[in-house]
Amino acid sequence: MYSAQEEFWDPLTRRHAQKMRRSLETERIRSLRGDGQNLVTEDVTVVEGDVATISCRVKNSDDSVIQLLNPNRQTIYFRDFRPLKDSRFQLVNFSNSELRVSLTNVSVSDEGRYFCQLYTDPPQEIYTTITVLVPPRNLVIDIQKEIAVEGEEIELNCTAMASRPATTIRWFKGNKELTGKSEVEQWSDMFTVTSQLVLKVGREDDGVPVVCLVDHPAVKDLQTQRYLEVMYKPQVRVSQNYPVQGLTREGEPLELTCAAFGKPQPTDMRWLRVDDEMPQHVVVSGSNLLISNLNKTDNGTYRCEASNAVGKSHADYMLFVYDSRAGEEGAIRSVDHAVVGGVVAVVVFAMLCLLIILGRYFARHKGTYFTHEAKGADDAADADTAIINAEGGQNNSEEKKEYFI
Fold first, then answer.
1. Most buried of 4, 138, 171, 336, CB within 10 angstroms?
2. CB atoms within 10 A of CB 278
3. Does the pTM exceed 0.85?
4. Which pLDDT belongs to residue 396?
């Protein structure tokens, strides 16, 4: 009996195949990776739809016949002849030392062991394994709430469908990687992975992309993203338009502006005076507050409030009205202090100069002064005589005059 394939073979090929089959049935052929054998091959990993190339090589060729079989033990190529009626198999190279075959449009059903056989005595056989990778067929992000409010926790789910092997899902918010929780479901030889991310959002997250990225050997840079939309209550800021810089003084005007930003944009904005009524002469126009003629009774805290659908916020401005000449008196005091400081510096310098002059004068006249007791003491027998001599010498001594011509 012949197989369905052998019916189309010529008699010589059929006899070789039958002989080979009988040899394989009588001897147990070791399916090793070439250890101690003459055949060499390698495993093949290919992405679904791509081309797989199977190579059966002989290290030391003796012109023996090389044959390639599929996982069902059907002959794909016998030498350079293809008995199998599958046109996806094409001969790439045939020689006494190699049989190389390509398989186009690979599918998962093509995965398995492919056998290289060499008709030696005894026959040799090794196998190569084709592994088929299937990238995720779809990658989607589902978000619990399309629009969230600041402070809320939202749930995002990213699903990678029908991949092989199971994919790994990574999460990113902007440039920061986050950690999700993944679940894997297997259907036949395919895997569906769903990753869940729970995220507490704030106003800084509005408009930020959340990215779901896939790590899989069959695909590179596969990702999808969703932009967060976060609503938040207003941020309020009060600025002083006039006077631009300086004191708020009696009789002068004051103009304040209130700015509020939120999502949604605030529609209700109002001015009030904290712990007191708003003065009647204060003019409020939209976001502006104007006091044309300040006085001491205007002192206090003025508040701008803004609200939207999320909530209410405010900002305060503390007003203190100074005397009308407060700025001038301050300038005068500054000038007076400068003058006084200059005078003190001059006086100190003059005193130092005087001390230096006196010091030099006394240093030059040192040792030229004598007491009255010292005069005439050289010839006196005792102290009383010395005093009498000194007084007499003082009264009766003749002045010695020197004249210089």
1. 171
2. 13
3. no
4. 44
